[in-house]
Amino acid sequence: MVATTSDRRVRRSQNALQTALLSLMSERQYDQITVQDVIDRADVGRSTFYAHYSSKEALLNASLGELRTVLTSPNEQPLGFSLPLLRHIEQHRALGQALFGSAQHTPVAQRIMSLLEEAIRQDLLQARLTQLPLPLDGFTKYAAGAYLAIVQWWLQAAEPMQPVELDRLMRRLILAATHP
Amino acid sequence: MVATTSDRRVRRSQNALQTALLSLMSERQYDQITVQDVIDRADVGRSTFYAHYSSKEALLNASLGELRTVLTSPNEQPLGFSLPLLRHIEQHRALGQALFGSAQHTPVAQRIMSLLEEAIRQDLLQARLTQLPLPLDGFTKYAAGAYLAIVQWWLQAAEPMQPVELDRLMRRLILAATHP
DNA sequence: TCCTTTCCGAACATGATGTCTGGAAACGAA
DNA sequence: TTCGTTTCCAGACATCATGTTCGGAAAGGA
Fewest Cβ atoms nearer than 10 Å: which of A38, A44, B51, B128? Predict the structure, then answer.
């Protein structure tokens, strides 16, 4: 969203394309949006699109400038970016859902997450862990997301720890908040 | 991976297709795999594929039977599925990376996650939180994954809480393990 | 005003998806 | 082994999205 050139035509084209993409992403998933859709909404020629961006991904990158700004603003405490970010998202719910829900938009992640969530939910219910700091749904999603992220890190680590270690760690990290 | 029919031809075809997909997923990302790739590796005719599965997604679903089995096995404690799952993954690293890394395979999620990770890493470093229960990389990924999941839940909630509340909750959940 | 850059639309090659055909092959049951 | 049924196959096909290329028209800046 930031001006790079002095040529008004360039500015107008790029801005129209970025705005069009974000607007479309508020309505449907990113991968359901074609280049044709974008240039139609931006009212820009096909060749003009490719004159500015080599692909849809390149346009996406350019379109996320505002979010980057919010996240990289200096702050004092850990997760200091959080509150401004949450307020910002609240103002743009549809776009927020598109961006933060995007991890669900791939068939694989969708299946994995839902399998994980189901397993975790069962465990929580069975263990009578009902004194949670947030509704069961939310805690389940939190736990599944955290679990997925850690396994992912584990699989990419240069010297991966033993399953037993990692398993103990999982409990310490994820279940820490279940005992208020 | 489970027999449904008594006709050997059907069993062979379905098994070949499921195995081929998982095998390909150990090599590259799911969305980089075409139906043509699958049927080539399975050595099966194109029309045969569509006789059994309506799409690549349908085949994926059928192929995840084994994982479902591991996750839904009964157990006692919360996260009881974890250790068997981790052991299982360790035996199939490539496939594990494909499945659990899948959330990163969409351009949007990839950008969001990396922006989040960067912000969190900065915060942790600045706050001198170096006594973490796991390496900084891992904790960063854990925090980012958890944050993403909670925001996602928040945006879909029927009665979403206030940003201030959620922000407090985030700290309680995510940073709980930073004070050992 | 004048030179340069950008825009446009249309056409094109490429490659993936999903459907459909008729004949060949494999199956299970008798 | 035979026989009726089901599945498999190759290939052709329509459809749709991507990314490239072109020359002429329009808009920009100096």
Answer: B128
> B19 CA to chain A: closest CA distance, Å?
16
Per-residue pLDDT, A180: 56
pLDDT tens by residue, A41-96: 999 999 999 999 999 999 999 999 989 999 998 888 889 999 999 999 999 999 99
Identify the residue among A152, A159, A170, A178 best suited for mutation to test binding to B, counting B beta carbons within 10 A and taking the highest. Answer: A152
Question: Would you state the structure tokens that stand for residue B25, as one six-digit string?
Answer: 């997923």
Report the residue of chain B nearest A58, measured CA to CA: B107
B110-161 tens-digit pLDDT: 999 999 999 999 999 988 877 888 999 999 999 999 999 999 999 999 999 9
Q: Give the distance, in angstroms, between the CA of residue A171 and the centroid of all CA atoms in the same chain.
A: 25
Quote the tokens at residue A77: 């405490």
* B132 φ/ψ angles, rounded to the nearest 5 degrees: -85, 155
The token pair that represents B34 in the structure block: 């075409």
Residues of A in contact with B93 (CB under 8 A): 155
B112: nearest CB among A31, A102, A124: A102
